[in-house]
Amino acid sequence: MFKFYRRGLWTAIVASGAALALAACEDKTVGPGSLTPPVHGYFAFVTTTDYQTGSASIVTGDTLLHATNNVASVHSDALARSYNGFIYVLNRQGADNVQVIDPLDGFHTRKQFTVGNGADPEDIVFQNVNRAFVSRYNEDQMWIVNPNTGQRSGLIDFSWLADADNVPEMAHMVKVNNRVFVAIQRLDRNTPFFDPTGTSYLAVFDPTTEQFVDADNSTPGKQAIKLTGSNPFGELVFNAASGQVWVPEAGFLGIKDGGLETINPNTLAKSGILINENTFGGDVTDVVAIDANRGAAIINDSNFNTLLVGFDLTTPTVIDTIYAPGSFALQDAELSRDGRIFVSDRTPVAPGIRVFRASDHTQITTTPIDVGLPPADIEFVLTN
Question: Across all residues in the chain, what is the average pLDDT?
Fold first, then answer.
């Protein structure tokens, strides 16, 4: 039931108790053989899963929104990040590796390397082409790796942020200038649903020196940012228009105790909860920044239905409901560079990618774009 909280409710409701298909954990390079031609330009890379089998498809970034399905095999519990034209798939619980995919080589897997058995990699950020940081959800040590070779060059100790179960639950990350922000959920693994322990943080470190940045000079030692809410569940979003880091805080599942908080990446000052979950109408599990103040959020309501809502921080209020499939179906939302919101819709009868205009929330897709298996994570990629 751990997936119930961290990955989203779909796993528990639809596939509770099902074993995830395992992927190889050892360091390996996969040989050529993909039939997919090289893909140049801008596109969405979508991991897909039925929580037993995993795959990946792509959706073009042009107005045609054409999908090419099953361009690569990935783990059944995977998310993707892109950097310098390559795709880095985090094959998570049960696989515990990073898979490096080259779109210009027919989505051939050029490298696949372990980050420690049972570690459960949750995110990766890059300092440069030879140096990256991997948050490991089940461990208290972050790995520093060469993303080309998979070689580990160092560790960053997060044990000082752990709760009584000795695991801090380091989750999503975002890099802003020369600071890396790490969501520290601090969940109680001795409870059935991994309940929040009451205090969650954003830890901040300098990727050059590997030293933590003190968020509170008035207290001796190094301090992380103590969040107003608990359980920073969704991806951290740097809003370039406002210069703020947006932090969705889900709190306890089914209790309206969280909301959206922002952090100033320069001063490390926090805003407090700007829109709470009473206003959102449920647990906030993902956010998208449209401009300095407007955004969209995936909400899980009290009936275990997910919906996409638009909000405005200047009011602050929820503007409208953009899309409500009437079931627990929405898992990820991402904003394209031309102002469209791509949403992974796992509705059982017609799963796929739905696309909305960010400016007026109008749906562009008349039917969901078929990406094979139900879509999970969306990552936009730019190649030469």
Answer: 91
